[in-house]
Design goal:
The complex is a heterodimer of chains A (165) and B (116).
Chain A (H helix, E strand, L loop, with lengths): L1 E6 L3 E8 L3 H9 L1 H7 L6 E7 L6 E7 L6 E12 L3 E9 L20 E11 L2 E11 L8 H18 L1
Antiparallel strand pairs in A: 1-2, 2-8, 3-4, 4-5, 5-6, 6-7, 7-8
Helix pairs in contact in A: 1-2
Chain B lengths: L1 H15 L2 H10 L6 H5 L6 H13 L3 E3 L8 E3 L2 H5 L3 H30 L1
Helix pairs in contact in B: 1-4
The chains are: A alpha+beta (165), B mainly alpha (116).
Chain lengths: 165, 116
């Protein structure tokens, strides 16, 4: 496996090459049973993964913390489906019924975009598959955001000012 | 290189995932303080507070003076900036996920071979 990570201001772009054909990597994303095996932070489980795999079809995913005390639900819909090549879906924090909730109601720091978009591109070569995953923030209509970052910037300014005194 | 960045992020997240340590950081944002001063508001022993300080120090969030008699602690916000963007937090989750995907695929491949 080889990895490259590209930094962008408003998106996460991760490229990986797996020793597996593209149709298997596709199943990792498109088949809920496979998806549950790998998705989420270390130690987390995925008790629910509903995927209506068609354009406009809904997703509902639940991630549970290692001790099961915290559950995080996300929903979204499929934007583009080209089997074994390209998958695009949106993602928003949700409740267990799939109703979208604001990121701050989920306990996420301010600055989290309400809706993000995940794009997975697959390219098979000699039985190996290069996967490029892009997770981008969809600009919020309110134009709000950057709360956390601003808080840290303020903290930095405060400390620098204090040190200069 | 990337694996090391991930470990570093884990360390920063781990250090921040504790209310006492966040309170210590908030106190240090007001200015440097000795371990005794940091311990004051908490119903905790000095060794317990020292442990929290060591965790923060390892994450690069605070530095402790080596020479002054009272070894005051100061905050370093550089690591906080690393985790301040939503993209960095998601990156952390995705990297861990894809590590697991890779392991899972290896398991599937091995199963296929042993099934043949």
């Amino acid at each position: 496996m080889s990895n490259t990570t590209v930094s962008k201001e408003d998106a996460v772009v991760i490229e990986r090459t797996f020793d597996a054909p593209a149709d298997l990597i596709w199943q990792m994303w498109a088949d809920p049973e496979h998806f549950k095996q790998w998705y989420g932070p270390k130690g987390f489980t995925v008790p629910v993964a509903e995927m209506d795999l068609r354009v406009g079809g809904k997703r509902l995913i639940c991630m549970a913390s290692p001790d099961g005390s915290m559950k995080m639900w996300t929903t979204g819909e499929y934007v583009e489906i080209v089997p074994n090549q390209r998958l695009i879906y949106t993602e928003s924090p949700a409740d267990e019924n799939g109703n979208v909730v604001s990121p701050s109601a989920m306990g996420m720091p301010e600055g989290y975009p309400a809706t993000t978009e995940v794009t997975v591109s697959l390219e098979e070569l000699d039985g190996r598959t290069r996967m490029v995953m892009t997770h981008a923030g969809v600009p919020a209509e309110s134009g709000a955001g950057g709360g956390w970052e601003q808080a840290f910037d303020k903290l930095t300014d405060y400390i620098q000012a204090a040190l200069n005194e | 290189m990337m694996r090391r960045d991930n470990d570093r992020l884990s360390q920063i997240f781990g250090a921040l995932a504790n209310p006492t340590r966040r309170a210590i950081l908030a106190r240090l944002a007001e200015g440097e303080a000795t371990v005794n001063e940091l311990a004051e508001p908490f119903d905790m022993s000095l060794p317990a507070i020292s442990k929290h300080i060591k965790v923060l120090e390892r994450a690069g969030l605070i530095t402790q003076g080596q020479q002054a008699q009272y070894r005051p602690c100061t905050i370093d916000v550089t690591p906080l900036k690393e985790v301040s963007k939503w993209t960095e937090q998601y990156r952390h989750i995705w990297e861990a996920s894809f590590d697991r995907m890779d392991e899972y695929i290896s398991q599937l491949n091995n199963k296929e071979i042993s099934d043949e």
